[in-house]
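Protein modeling request. Please complete all fields; requests missing the sequence field cannot be processed.
Requester role: graduate student
Desired output: 3D structure, token encoding
Chains: 1
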Amino acid sequence: MCRDSGNTIGQRLKRLKIKAALGALLLCQSLASYASSGGGSAAILIKANQQDSTAGTRAELAANYLRSGQLEVAREELQMTLDIQKDHSDTNYVSALLILHLNEADEKNEYFRRAVRSNSGNTKAAHDYGVFLCRRVRYRESVDYFLLAAGNSLFGNSHLSLSRASECIVEEREVLLRRALDIDSWIPSALEKMVEIRFSQQNSMGARAYEERYISVTDPDARTLMLGYEAE
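Delivered output (232 residues):
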């Protein structure tokens, strides 16, 4: 069971990495084509870069408004940017966060989807979209986005994406938790869940080993202490 689940996760992660690499390659080819054609193409590229820079600045500004609670001002800033650049990744990501704050999100939240589709390297958007989907019981979809985030070597919280994914897919829970702990062996939530898993498997030594690591990084609750006590 665990071996099959591991292969499934590994295959899906490999496919997502290949997809991201192909997207990056196509982008590089497009930029090279612009650069080599000269004249009008070069001017278009410069304009596109300027628009991207402006959109990025406005997205950051909107995020600051969002953090300070100025939600309507943030909405206006984001809408002005999307009117010019509908598929700008960061703008769509901040827009997704805004509608969550306003409790206006539907079951899809297209802003999240657009943010990741336009830039598969937007790991924060991928991770948060995974959380959004998991909370709406769209478990399989959520894991794809968690794996997309975790598969990016530049993402500093890949272990958290794997740990959150384990909460969505029960049958692959242990595989995902162990992958997360391979990256960071001291994640409290992952260690706590591994105590539960080992205890349910009647593996008292395994449960105790994970509990000792868990206790060393956090104050355990009564339930976890009881599991450890029963495992002895």
